[in-house]
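Tokens as discussed.
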């Protein structure tokens, strides 16, 4: 009688193929369950029971398969899993590391990793439908942070558009001997915007006004760009406790973003060294190395002594001519991220010495926000997001502010889809020709995404002032260059 053996999902050999690898079968069961749950919220009984058998057999807690269990809760109950989630999806430099001759150890590690990866992906991407509570939003944001950590990034890094940093010392070329894993580095730029889109959808599905009216529920909200956008759009419909809680959330978010941007801006010099001013002859300015070098001819070998004829001092005086920075921000619906980021950035630059900052926001009407530029929180509360776009009304406010063109930079943030494109561009070109620095910015969003009107893009390029787009760090670099 012919013997037919196969491998059971739990690893036990049954009738079927005698050469089947039980570890491969186990991993396939977990990934089939992952795909089934991503595309269909209904449980597949066979896959669920088989996956439970696999998870228990490899020593992982059954809660790993519970979609209602947050990763934070799982790690709190099983602290040893935290190290496994960190860098979980970071590719390994040498796939064979840690495997014995037949590779069994690696295959067993792959099954364990498949179970952990499935948990992270399902908690983040199977976001369901219907009304979302504040607790559910906070849990999703925490789980998204674990996904970012699994990809070797800091929590909030992908959603914040800050690729490049690594969380917890995780190496981009190693996973601690857990076996080979696909290189997802090419996907990371796309994952960030997708996470942002899911988060925005969750916020839209949340009964925000009801949550804000309850201090307990409002305290559980985690500020994010999507949440702040909803708060700014709805602020005129809020009052009492709900309005106070909304303002508290906006203030928290502003402070968090300001801390990040301030670190970048503070590295900027407040002015170039002015060598026309003689150095002040005080000890702290003494250039000891230069003094010794210039007096080496006075060295006495017999006495082993250096005689100094002249002391040299460092120049420390900086040019103190005030720089004028005029920031014009499109506050239409497509530019919310830019409005928030640039309002905060303008307030930080306004805090630097010898920098005169003006802020103008516009849609079909323009608003001079300069009196509140030092307080981004108050500035944002005065904005009215949405509407069309007519940059000529903003230009009417911005142009009179250019008193000394050579000492002025105009930063214009917009997607440049304008009602009156020709006259607006001519005004911008005139600013450039006057000697002022004109910087068109297509987006300074959290994701770096943003569509820019091709008509304007080509003309700015021909003018010699190409559109900056991408992360806000690019704009910070340009402004630092202007100030130094």
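Sequence:
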């Amino acid at each position: 009688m012919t013997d037919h053996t196969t491998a059971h999902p739990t690893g036990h050999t049954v009738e079927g193929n005698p050469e089947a690898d039980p570890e491969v079968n186990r991993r396939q069961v977990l990934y089939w369950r992952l795909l089934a749950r991503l595309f269909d919220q209904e449980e597949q009984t066979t896959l669920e029971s088989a996956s439970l058998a696999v998870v228990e057999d490899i020593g992982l807690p059954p809660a790993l398969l519970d979609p209602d269990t947050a990763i934070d809760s799982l790690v709190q109950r099983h602290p040893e899993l935290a190290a496994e989630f960190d860098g979980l999806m970071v590719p390994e430099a040498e796939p064979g590391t840690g495997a014995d001759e037949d590779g069994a150890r690696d295959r067993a590690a792959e099954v364990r990793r498949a179970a952990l990866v499935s948990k992270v992906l399902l908690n983040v991407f199977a976001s369901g439908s219907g009304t979302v509570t504040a607790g559910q939003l906070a849990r999703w944001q925490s789980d998204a942070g674990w996904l970012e950590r699994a990809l070797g990034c800091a929590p909030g890094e992908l959603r914040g558009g800050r690729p490049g940093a690594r969380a917890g010392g995780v190496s981009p070329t190693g996973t601690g001997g857990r076996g080979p894993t696909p290189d997802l580095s090419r996907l990371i730029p796309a994952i960030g915007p997708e996470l942002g889109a899911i988060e925005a959808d969750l916020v839209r599905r949340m009964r925000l006004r009801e949550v804000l009216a309850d201090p307990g529920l409002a305290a559980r909200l985690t500020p994010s760009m999507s949440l702040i956008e909803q708060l700014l759009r709805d602020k005129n419909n809020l009052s009492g406790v709900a309005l106070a809680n909304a303002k508290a959330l906006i203030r928290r978010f502003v402070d968090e973003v300001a801390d990040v941007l301030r670190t970048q801006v503070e590295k900027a010099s407040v002015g170039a060294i002015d060598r026309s001013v003689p150095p002040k002859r005080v000890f702290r300015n003494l250039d000891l190395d230069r003094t010794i070098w210039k007096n080496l001819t006075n060295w006495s070998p017999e006495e082993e002594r250096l005689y100094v004829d002249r002391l040299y001092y460092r120049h420390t005086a900086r040019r103190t001519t005030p720089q004028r920075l005029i920031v014009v921000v499109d506050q239409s619906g497509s530019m919310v991220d830019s409005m928030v980021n640039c309002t905060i950035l303008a307030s930080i630059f306004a805090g630097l010495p010898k920098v005169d900052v003006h802020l103008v926001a516009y849609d079909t009407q323009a608003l001079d926000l300069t009196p509140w530029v030092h307080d981004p929180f108050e500035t944002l509360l005065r904005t009215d997001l949405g509407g069309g776009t007519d940059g000529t009304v903003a230009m009417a406010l911005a142009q009179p502010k250019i008193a000394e063109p050579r000492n002025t930079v105009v930063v214009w943030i917009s997607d440049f889809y304008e009602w009156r494109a020709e006259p607006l561009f001519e005004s911008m070109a005139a600013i450039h020709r006057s000697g002022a620095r004109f910087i068109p910015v297509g987006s300074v969003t959290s994701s770096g995404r943003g569509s820019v009107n091709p008509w304007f893009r080509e003309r700015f390029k021909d003018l010699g002032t190409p559109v900056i787009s991408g992360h806000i760090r690019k704009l910070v670099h340009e402004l630092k260059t202007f100030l130094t």
